[in-house]
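User: Quick sanity check before I run a bigger batch. Here is a single chain. Can you write out its predicted 3D structure?
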Amino acid sequence: MESTPGILYKGYNYFHEQFQKQETDLLKVRLFLKKALVMRGEEAAEIFYDDSRFSREGATPKRFKKTLLGQGGVQGLDGDEHVNRKRMFMQEMNRDSLAALEQAFEQHLQKAIISWEKQPKITFFDEIEKVLFSAACDWVGVPVKKDEVEQRKNDLSELIDGAGRIGLSHYQARRARKSSEKWIMKLVSQKRKKEKNTPGSSILSRFSFHKNLRNKLLDKRIVAVEILNLLRPIVAIARYITFSAVALHENPQYCERLRKDKDKLDLYFVQEVRRFYPFFPFVPAKVNKEFEWKGVKFPKGRRVLLDLYATQHHENIWNNPNAFYAERFSTWDGSAFNFIPQGGGDHVHNHRCAGEWITINITRITLNYLVEKMTYQIPKQDLEIELSRIPTIPKSRLKMTNVRRALNGIQVL
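Assistant: Done. Predicted structure follows.
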């Protein structure tokens, strides 16, 4: 049967329910009228990230390239070209660089909290997106005028929110993609004109002068796509941060424990947020060499999806997977294939999110503020997280009232 309507109707749960009902880790389906296979689980992930069996070229539907990911980006490359482009990202994931991003985030968060004190009510998700956007631009070296922040942030938010939708939302995301790429392309041109053959100290500059395997500068549109592949995922962390606040609200027993245990529990809590709450539903690939797994043939060219959400809720991997229990990560084995909220495998050679450390660190910082450095109230509201909506967020986007700095204060740097 054609599965596309089912995904639109049930979202994250569509394949997850079929896996459970059929007691299998492999489904034969049709997507966009074409035969496809869907997998879940640790063994499936290990196979999925075997580059001798799968490729990413042509695997992502065009609707996602024209919105969420951009055309020509690192997610669609294979082999040496992928490694070369991925290294461009990984060179920015060093300790000093990540520390600079975290510092920028804290500065903007502290200023935001002071402004929230003056408001009777805030929408936490929207506010955190602004903080993340401003911090990301500072880190990458992208200049943004004050009167442009709201619109530029909204465009990136639209790329995330409208990518998997149909109708008006999808076309708004495509418009946002064009507008955002045009904005960054102009900055790339300015960098190349001003700095010529000597890159400056910013990430924007280093990306602008990155060379491919043929020793040529990347097309400025490709650079724009990759710069947005830094900015957009950082803005997307707002979902994990909002889920963290919801998790604290719904599991208040963790608040005092997080204040006392700062060594590991906050990390376990953030990891459980990333496991428990829905984010990326699945990732695509295409078979590049026919093989057989679990008695099923994987023909060359067949599209295959790895279901991330179903893997994060696999009853054979996670004990009581539908319960929020941070302590489960105290005994997690560290596998690169059973805990894959942002992809699996190796960060350099496989298609695992290069910014995973950013997600973890930024969410941990915010968790510390929510627990110790600010006070707030969460009024009665609709916090339902609709699994039929991809990507999802609490319906109310999390309203907060009476936001205040904690008694120990916040120093604005």
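The mean pLDDT is 92.

User: Great, the batch can go ahead then.
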